[in-house]
Amino acid sequence: MRLPFGLNSMLSIQGPRSIYVYSLLIGLFSGFGAYGFNWALTWTESFTFGNLIGYDPGTPAGDLHFHSVGLAAELSPLWILFLPAIGGLLVGIITSFFCPEAQGGGTDSLIHAFHFNEGKIRTKVPFYKAIATILTLGSGGSGGKEGPTAQIGAGFGSSLANFLGAGARARRTLMLAGTAGGLGAIFRAPLGGAITAVEMVYQEDIESDSLVPCILSSVTAYLTFTSIAGSGSIFSVQEYSLNDYRHIPLYIVLGLLCYVVGYFFVKVYHFVQDIFSKLPLPNYLKPAFGGLIVGCIALLFPEVLGTGFGLIQRMINGEVLTSTSFGFSGPFFLLAVAIFKVFSTSLTVGSGGSGGLLGPSFAIGGMLGAFVGTMANVLFPELNIIVFPFLLVGMGSFFAGVARAPIAGMIMVCDMIGSYALLPALMIVAMIAVVLSHRISIYRNQIKNRFLSPSHHWDMNQDIMDRIRILDHFTEFRKYAMVSEHLSLTQLQTNAPGIQASDFILVGSNDEYKGIVSLRKNRILPEYEAELKNLITCGEIVQDVPPVCQSDTLGKALRILLEYDVDKLAIVEENRCLGYLRYIDLFNAYQNEVKNKNKQRKSV
């Protein structure tokens, strides 16, 4: 669906400022979407965990606004065993018969859409993703809730771009802005959500072109979400600062541990994905089979159920986490929860269930940090170590390592606790985990950097095009698609097939340049042609696109074509239009320049 006639010139994307305005709108929608999803998920969990399973996983301080589990019924081994399988079966039906994109973590599919599908996401995906994730996490599956919220925002950004008739570049930007909005809202992390969105698409780079739109969207979504759910960070943490440098070696040990377990997590998750993809079962049964194994794990460790954020808040509050099944506690119990969380998450998401990987990564890293802090208290009681800083540092550092997102891991945790006091320790541990994990990533669709991404194919050749002047390759220019500003739009539509053009250069009576009219963005529908015939002239709907002169470079011309989403560009000297250049003309000139350079090298 496209914009109705008459709204094109007013609402279509004309440049960066339009992107910024629409990023605010996407953030607003993402904030409402994240709130609705979080409310539905928390209500579902309050029923399943409280009335069926009989286990209270705890509630993060930022989610106290929502209905929590509260008083739980008696622990039910039968429901623990079979409820994840029941949820998996329902999710399998949704992903097999209604929306295949709803399975898995969600983030990887967003990365794939960015690099390989021009940022296109089907409109129905966020809806089914939200339902599938509620069923997965509400039935005890191990996953995160960032997947659907990111896809809600990303889906709206992509759909809005399609509605506006935007090009691939703008669509990718709006898709990432929606992703940032979903993350910023659900984690109450306005800056962290934006950084995560631009960093997660690459292993060693960031999508810097989308940074400002992502910040605008994430902040707007955060403000929208907190205006309804109440202000404050997702975790309530007492003040702390790294002022005892004897703790630094322990943080280094934590960095090494995050790398080892992170490497194990990535390998296990990808192994489970591959095994279930080849498993001789109908696709709708695979999440149920994975859920049944998760239920077996949860019989021993119910702590692996759900997102794990409630357990983190309980430990931050100073509670000594004790095994629900065996009644023991201590550092090795925390390590066991982290390891079994690796398996439960891999089986939940890797089998085809629906849930994010960012949330479980935080939970696993938090348990590893708590393990190091608790063990240090046992071995070095004279250091008077407080456990929760190690827990929080482990959260960000583990995610930074497995997702190849060092800045996002650090900033996200700081936003989630509402303080940057732990940033120095986060920098130390995250850098260790990232440097050691340089060959692994939990996201298979990540690309190393912008140079290798199809989305930036022509950007990488920009340095050559910026050295080629238009006059070096062109002395005459095409004029077939030059029309008068007084020509009616209906007449232009009639003439367009014979000229074989969709974008036209508009000129005045003395060939002075006026702008560009695009029939891709401005067209009278057949049912209105009789009523509007000759009433609208091209001059009334002209798009203000800057021209170039003969001394300008091909690089400048290409940037204007991409920014304004037109397929030709006017060549103007002394306000007189000499003609125009098309995409194909620029690319041919580029190819000729490369051939000439190669011939010169061979002759030398």
Notes on the structure:
There is one protein chain. The protein has helices at residues 8-11, 16-53, 77-97, 107-116, 125-138, 146-163, 168-186, 190-199, 211-229, 248-278, 286-300, 309-316, 331-350, 358-379, 387-403, 406-417, 423-436, 462-465, 489-499, 529-532, 554-564, 583-603, and strands at residues 482-484, 503-507, 513-518, 568-573, 576-582. The strands form 2 sheets. Strands 1-2-3 form a 3-stranded mixed beta sheet, with no helix packed on it. The protein has 22 helices and 5 strands. By secondary structure, the chain is mostly helical. Helices cover 57% and strands 4% of the residues. The model has no long low-confidence stretch (mean pLDDT 88).
Salient structural properties:
3 domains; elongated; 22 helices; 3-stranded mixed β-sheet; about 600 residues; two-stranded antiparallel sheet; Clc chloride channel; mainly alpha; CBS-domain; 5 strands
> How confident is the prediction overall: mean pLDDT?
88
Q: How much helix, percentage-wise, in residues?
A: 55-70%
Integer-rounded radius of gyration:
28 Å
**Uncertain ranges:** none
3D shape: elongated
Distance between the termini: 56 Å
Q: How would a crystallographer describe the biggest sheet? A: 3 strands, mixed
| Helix and strand pattern | HHHHHHHHHHHHHHHHHHEHEEHHEEH
